[in-house]
Each structure stands twice: as C-alpha cells, then as structure tokens.
C-alpha cells in the first residue's frame, strides 16, 4: 500500500501544482507536449521546409526492367541542395549527379548568372558532353523542381498518419499521393518514356503490385527533419517492373554557404552566346562556299536491340559510311565528286534479312554544260554502273556530304559554349545541345545514311520518335586562323524504346568530318572520270 501511495504522490503533486499555477496566472495556458505522431512530424517538416537556410544530401536509385529486355544498370541520382533565401544574388544551388542506364551521366547545376537563372549539366570535369542547358524561368518554384516537393505537399495531405516507433515516424500515405510522388521523381531523372508508360496504366493495374514504404526521423529536439525515406515497388504485369528508393539527409539549418561552380572558358550569357554563334556560323558557311574544298568523313552507327526472339544472340547491328568529299564552286553552283563506302551489318540475315551489301559508290556533278548528276556504283558489285539523277535536289548536297545543316548553329540548339584552343592554335567550340537539337540530328542522319545501293529506305536505322534519351551528346566544331573549318565531331549515345516490340534499344552515332585545305579539286567533265 505504501508503494502505491508513493507512486501516486508525484502525479497528485503535479496536478496540485498545475492547478495552483493556473489560479495564479489565469491568462497563461499550460504547455502540452504533443504525442509522437503526425503533429510532431508536421511541425518539424514545416520548420525545415520554411527555413530561410537549409542544406541536404539526397540519393535516388531506380531499378527498372522491361519485358523481353536486358537488365539495366540501376539509375542513380544523387547530390546536394543548398538553400539560402537571405542572399540577394543567389538563392539556391543544386548540384546533382546522374548515372546509370536510364539517365544522362552528368552533374547538374542550377545557379545564377547575373540576373539569369541557369541550369547546366556537365560531366565531372565540367565539360559539356551531354544534353545540358536551360534558361530557368524567373518565377522558378524551387520546391517543385527537386525532391523537396514531396515533403512540401505532405503538409496538405489530409489522410497522412505518422506513427512513432523505434525512433521513426512511419508515414501512411494514400495511394494516389504515392503514385504521383513516384511519377514526379521519375520525371526528375529524365525517364520520360517510363513515366509515360506508367501514366497510361489504369488505376486498377496500379493497385496490383504497388507497394510503398515511407518514414522520417527528426533531430534530437524534434524540431527539424533529420532524414526522409521513400521507397516504392511497382510490378505492371507483362510490361515492366520498377524498384525505387529515395533517401534525403538534412545536414544544415543555418550558415549555409553557396559557392557557385566555375566553368572555365564557358559562355552562358545569351548575348555572348549569340555573338559567338554568329561568328561560328559565318566560318561554317564560308567553308561550305569555298572556291574549292576537300574533306574526309566517317559516320558510324551502332544499334543494340538486346536479346529477343528475333535476335536470340543479342547481336548488335553496325553501319559505317565513310568517304571523301571534293567540291568546287563555280559561280553560284557547287560541283562535287564524292566517294562513298558502306560497310553494314544490316546484311546479317539474323537481323533484317539479306537486304544490303557492302559497296563503294560515287556521286558527282559534272561540269559538262548541263550540270549532270551521276551515281556511279563500283563495277565489282555487278549492277548498273552509271545512274543519272534527273530529279536531283540542290538542298541534298549537305546531307549527302554528312554536314549538319547551317540551321543547326542557332541559339535554339546551343545555349552553352565552351571555347578553347588546341596545340595548333585552332579555336575549339564545344556546344551544349538541347534535347530538340539531338532529335533533329538523329532524324537528319537517319535520312542521309545510306545502307543499300539503290538509295531506297528499306527500313529506318533507328526509331527515335520523341522518346530518345541521350546519355552523351557531344558536338564540337574546330576552326583555324583563316576562319575555316578544321573538323566537325558529333557523338550521340543513348537509348529508345522500339515501337513494335516495346524493347529498349541502345544506340550510338559518331560523326567525324576532317578538312584538308592543302588539297584542291577541279570538277570533272565526263562520267568516265568520276571514279578515277
């Protein structure tokens, strides 16, 4: 009995003191410590997300597998976000690295250049070898463009529950919120093809095989977030599987220092970019319009369809188009003689049937008074040697010569330029390509690469549509002291989803064009001189 009284006494004493305190200060309310649940979590979340300074590290891993496709290297997206709204010139910086089969391998920065807000992606050496640039709107909503938006929207989630157990606040989210969060994260890692496929899945299918696990921890005072964890697994029958995990670790709530990245020799201001582009375009056109020119070109494509019923060995299909271009400008007409060599694995019966053969050919415009254009097939192939082109299109010259169109060199396509000099004092311009520019290049080369001797498009070399995802997109132009082209180099690498099968196809296009201004060309006058 004494033990029970001893236990009750402190409680009774507290109640007594509390009532006395209340009678002495009627305007003062008794402080109540909220339970370890949703109220505590929301308070910490609000304090964290509305802080004028905070910093966190994040890591996202997505494992994705398509039916009848190769297993992918997990896509990883990690980095650090700095927020400091007390600064006037720079409010935030986000540095994030992307690797894996489904995303662009790069480091992404969002920061201020003067009054402009810029987003740039580069490799770890801050070199532009990927799709990279975006002029961010002045009304840019920071929380909506990074992983914080999930935490921000949690506060308005009426059915949120936060049960405290083993030091974690286990968060119960309704299905629609979890689905939208997953789709939003997939968008952030540039997996638009997958996001589109997920959006097309019915709610009924979402309900099958969808699992989510979300929890958070707070700091010792339970006033700020310490970690936030979100993972989900989706299994869409007969289509694909996704395993998804996101971890967010808050590291600072004050004294956040933002040090902007430095990109040596890089131009991002719009006026300066446009000035450089005007100069490059002038040199580009001058080289194409030179009185005489000579250059070699080499275009290689690699298409890997993976393992499937039609390709049980997983054989890649390679095509190589190379040759020598010789041009002479007389008046306003270009006379040319181009040697073309095609070496293609498309003749492999396991891939497309015996549709094409390796061959050499020439195309030339004669200075014969009639400007006749001939195709000349290597006699060893055994087909008609000379074919006169009666409906030859003047605009096809550049495409045939593998040169990108002059329209490519524009601010719409290039908003970032890295300008350096090589050992020969040549100017080297490396451009940051926009997404649309990559697709336009692919479409252009898909049209111009020849894989059969009749120039008939028997099938597309690749099927990019609008879903091509680039892992590498390098575009470099080198010019000499005489303001002429030295070289044009393009390297595009990525993947697309094949329309017919739904399989992921890995793809690469490499273009190398090298000028030699020590050589000249005089237009031939007879067809017999073309292949000499």
Shape: elongated
- Radius of gyration, CA atoms, in whole angstroms: 31 Å
**Tally of alpha and pi helices:** 9
Strand order of the largest sheet: 12-19-20-21-22-23-13-14-15-16-17-18
**N-end to C-end Cα span:** 118 Å
Structural class: alpha+beta
On the 0 to 100 scale, the average pLDDT is 77
Report the strand count.
Answer: 23
What share of the residues does DSSP label as strand, in percent? 35-45%
The main pleated sheet reads as: 12 strands, antiparallel
Task: Work out the helicity level.
Answer: 10-25%
**Please, how many domains?**
2
Uncertain residue ranges: 1-31
List the helices and strands and how they pair.
Elements: H1 2-24, H2 38-49, E1 53-66, E2 75-84, E3 92-99, E4 106-113, E5 116-122, E6 133-136, H3 148-154, E7 161-165, E8 168-172, H4 175-188, H5 192-200, H6 203-207, E9 210-218, E10 225-236, E11 240-252, E12 266-267, H7 270-288, E13 292-304, E14 316-330, E15 333-344, E16 359-365, E17 373-377, E18 386-388, H8 396-400, E19 414-421, E20 427-433, H9 435-448, E21 469-479, E22 485-497, E23 504-515
Antiparallel strand pairs: 1-2, 1-11, 2-3, 3-4, 4-5, 5-6, 7-8, 8-9, 9-10, 10-11, 12-19, 13-14, 13-23, 14-15, 15-16, 16-17, 17-18, 19-20, 20-21, 21-22, 22-23
Helix pairs in contact: 2-3, 4-5
